[in-house]
Amino acid sequence: MTQQALSRRSFLSGGRCSAVDRIRPPGIGGVGLAACTGCGQCAEHCPTGVIGLVDGLPALDFAAAECTFCGACAQNCPEPVFADGAAGRFEHVVAIASSCLPFRGVDCQACRDACPAEAIRFRPVRGGPFVPELMAEACTGCGACISVCPVGAVATAPRNVEATYA
Question: Is 61 helix (H, G, I), strand (E, B) or coil?
Answer without folding.
Answer: coil
